[in-house]
Amino acid sequence: MTTPETQLRAASLRVTRPRVAVIEALGSRPHADADTVATAVRADLGRVSTQAIYDVLGALTRAGIVRAIEPAGSPARYELRVGDNHHHVVCRRCGDIEDVDCAVGHRPCLEADDDRGFVIDEAEVTYWGLCPDCRLAPPAPTVTPGAAAG
After folding, report:
1. DSSP β-ladder status, 126-129 and 77-79
2. Contact between 12 and 60 (Cβ < 8 Å)
3. Options 3.40.50.80, 1.10.10.10, 3.40.50.2000, 1.10.357.10; which CATH number does 4-69 get?
């Protein structure tokens, strides 16, 4: 297992406490949004600005240490699993996100029927449904707009 310090040095980034703390936070919280990462980093380091967290996430994403995913209707989420072109399954009810390997063979989704001249190096596939917990839970009550609560 590679340490955060080793990952940062390999990407020619300075090793700083906030960068290490962000990597460690994502190690135990895959698919976390920036607010979740900030809460974890603050619990570890104390006072760290929200802008500093976004700056670190941006630097780590550009360096290829972190991958940002943006499911529709959700803030950006961050993960340490990079470089393998995996996909995600998202729960429509609770928003839980899990990793899903490519459906068939080695990166078949990178071979488009018509690539329009692009050299494709990544594909984002998102599967949507209900997670096991939400599938077993009773349906949430629906509220009709304008109806009086009784």
Report:
1. unpaired
2. no
3. 1.10.10.10
CA distance 142 to 45: 42
Distance between CA atoms of residues 38 and 51, nearest Å: 10
Chain mean pLDDT for the chain: 88
Task: Provide the token pair at 149.
Answer: 């609560």
Question: In angstroms, rounded to a whole number, what is the distance separating the alpha carbons of residues 56 and 24?
Answer: 13
From CA 2, how far away is CA 40, in angstroms rounded? Answer: 20
Q: Where is 34: in which H helix or E strand?
A: helix 34-45
Residues 75-104 have pLDDT tens digits of 999 999 998 878 899 999 999 999 988 766
The more confident residue out of 63 and 72 is 63
The answer to whether 111 touches 104, Cβ cutoff 8 Å, is: no
Architecture of domain 83-136 in this structure: 2-Layer Sandwich (3.30)
Q: Helices 17-28 & 34-45, crossing angle to 10 degrees?
A: 120
HSE (CB half, 13 Å, CA atoms) of 129? 9
